[in-house]
Amino acid sequence: MKVLRVLPYLALLPLSGGCMDTTLNSIKDPPGDGTPQIQVDPSPIDFGAVPAGESSAKIVSMFSTGDASLNVSAMQIGAGRETFTLLEPLTGIYEPDAFAELTITYTSDGSETTGELEILSNDPANPNLRVPLLASSDGIADTGDTADTALPPLSAPVAICTVDPAEVLAIHEAADWIGNASYDTDGGSIVDYEWTLVSSPPGATTVMPAGSANRRNFSPDVAGEYVGELIVFDNDGLASDPCYATLTATAGDGLWVEMFWSYGGDDMDLHLLQPGGTIADYFTDCYYANCTSGLEWGGSGTADNPILDLDDIPGTGPENINIDTPTRGTYTVYVHDYPGSVYDSRNDTTINVYWGGRLIWTDTRNLNSEGTYFPFVEVTVPAGTAASL
After folding, report:
1. Helix, strand, coil percentages in the chain from 3-state DSSP, rounded to 5
2. Burial group, residue 317, by CB count within 10 angstroms (0-12, 13-18, 19+)
3. Which tens digits make up the pLDDT trace of 205-221?
């Protein structure tokens, strides 16, 4: 949630005699350049049928969708406040594309109920947005018949899942796993969202983020496909069938080199030599000691400079070196089995080489010689060819 500052604004003002005025009054906040815009999803907010005496909660997303800062100055439950409750009003300044997740609860008396969520903002089209709140009857009526009445069988909820965006650049971009469109076919509520990362490329270490319906800022560390599984549970304890969403993490358009290994505690270091370079030379070899912020190669600018984006010591990688626009020539990839690490047995080490976003070479070799530099492959640019060493 990108809330930059919270305004000291009180939505409910005490009246004389101790009463409370529940009217939201518009603020004088004309936008500068651009137009602020508010959007609430879902709208209306439908709790369905909740048994009398029980409570249900809904997560509601509020978005700043305009091209100017959205000033949300107050929010409250207007009509229906006897049964609907806004747990925490989230007022403040929301920059474009920012969002917040509001929690609204409903305590059922068994009857059909309506209400309104009121949100006051500087959106010129919706300065006092009113979002309908709905709850239907639980359907159980006293007919005076004391005979046993069979209740209809309960139905499982339905999981709806996506990942946004569906394709990102590995390491440098992130995606959100989205599940808040899931629903209960009986009109009940979803009480738990169980997200699991069921498939990742070899060498990947990124895990599913914490959260509830939506899991945000997932940044893959290896190129390839990631599959997320969502199972939701309703207030009757029933589970949905699994829903699957697939995220594709791409390599860059230039030269992209990945490395990972099998056993932790064995510090492997990735090295990339420029054409004519020398291993462990500070200026012609990109590695942990000189390349985490980039290394000056080639002509002016940074597009032809290498950078070590990922470096790992205690684990199993991954490590990554890439060059957006490498200069013409033949580049050499080495692996250094750094001396002094705890693990000193044989260790399967994998190198993947991408050129123009396409995997052009991969190999796994069993290394066991502390302090040794192992040559793996030569890559020729711009031909995009690779030769094992």
Report:
1. 0, 45, 55
2. buried
3. 999 999 999 999 999 99
pLDDT at 111: 86
Q: Which segments of the chain have a pLDDT < 70?
A: 1-32, 139-151
In our burial notation (b when 16+ CB lie closer than 10 A, e otherwise), range 183-218 reads bbebbbbbeebebebeebbebbebebbeeebbbeeb
Assess contact for 100 and 51: CB atoms under 8 A: no
pLDDT attached to residue 32: 57
Torsion angle defined by CA atoms of residues 350, 352, 353 and 356, in that order, rounded to the nearest 10 degrees: -170
C-alpha span between 22 and 24 (Å, rounded): 6
Positive or negative torsion for Cα 303, 309, 311, 312: negative
Alpha helices in the chain (DSSP H): none
Rounded distance, CA 87 to CA 263, Å? 47
Please give the DSSP secondary-structure letter assigned to residue 221.
S
Summarize pLDDT for 226-252 with one digit per residue, the tens. 999 999 999 999 999 999 999 999 999
Instruction: Give the list of residues 6+ apart from residue 209 with CB closer than 8 angstroms, or none.
Output: 177, 215, 216, 217, 218
0.70 surpassed by pTM: no
The label of the residue with tokens 């895990």 reads 207
pLDDT reported for residue 150:
62
What Rg, from alpha-carbon coordinates, does the chain have? 28
Among 261, 179, 181, 258, CA closest to 220: 258
Burial of residue 120 (number of CB atoms within 10 Å: 0-12, 13-18, 19+): buried
Per-residue confidence (pLDDT) for residue 15, from 0 to 100 = 31
Cα four-point dihedral sign 36, 42, 44, 47 = negative
Is cis: bond before 318, omega within 30 of 0? yes
**How far, CA to CA in Å, does 169 sit from each of 88, 115, 309, 311, 381?**
36, 44, 13, 18, 21
